[in-house]
Amino acid sequence: MGTLNTANINLTGNFNGNQPGFRVTLDASRALQGTGTRLWNASDGLNGNYFTNVKFNVGSCFNTSTSVFTTPATGIYLWNQVMATGSGAASQSYSSCEYYINGSRIGRSGWSELPAGYQRWTATDYIQLNAGDLVTFGGEWQQTTTFNNQSHLMMYFLG
């Protein structure tokens, strides 16, 4: 086993909890209106901006009226998304959580096959973003389902 040489480690950034970021949950249980690849707020997604239960929104970068995160600074961001269903969810041959940067579908979590019943669609990624980038959120699914208010979106600036 080797030894750790701290002279070769260089950490930068301020990790004191005041970095720009947000975490929001759905306001209530919401049903998907269609299938395929969609933004959550699209008419054939959840059909509205329902990620309005703000847990934190440091820097006010997430707009609950549009479901858009505007990056305040260039750097690396942590993205996490969880979409949770109740016991009545139909089985899914494929499902995923995704993000879009400036309107382009970029981040895909990979597809999961899920049995009927309680489901948890989840994804995490580290994303290089530029100041002013617009990040929106969505997914891909095979059958309509209803998500509960444990579903959340989160991004946090790491530095």
Structure description:
It is built from no helices and 13 strands. By secondary structure, it is an all-beta fold. Strands 3, 5, 6, 8, 9 and 11 form a 6-stranded antiparallel beta sheet that branches. A 5-stranded antiparallel beta sheet has the order 4-1-13-7-10, with no helix packed on it. A two-stranded antiparallel ribbon has the order 2-12. The protein has one domain (18-157): Jelly Rolls. The chain is globular and about 40 Å long.
Order of helices and strands: EEEEEEEEEEEEE
Estimate what percentage of residues fall within beta strands. 35-45%
- Main sheet: strands, sense, barrel: 6 strands, antiparallel
Q: Count of DSSP E strands?
A: 13
Mean pLDDT value: 87
Q: Indicate the radius of gyration in whole angstroms.
A: 17 Å
* Silhouette: globular
Number of domains: 1
The name CATH uses for the topology is Jelly Rolls
Give start-end ranges of low-pLDDT stretches: 4-10
The CATH class: Mainly Beta
Query: How far apart, in Å, are the first and last alpha carbons?
Result: 31 Å
Task: Supply database-style keywords.
five-stranded antiparallel beta sheet, 159 residues, Jelly Rolls, mainly beta, six-stranded antiparallel beta sheet
Describe the secondary-structure layout.
Layout: E1 21-25, E2 30-31, E3 36-39, E4 53-58, E5 62-63, E6 68-70, E7 75-84, E8 95-101, E9 104-108, E10 120-129, E11 134-141, E12 146-147, E13 152-157
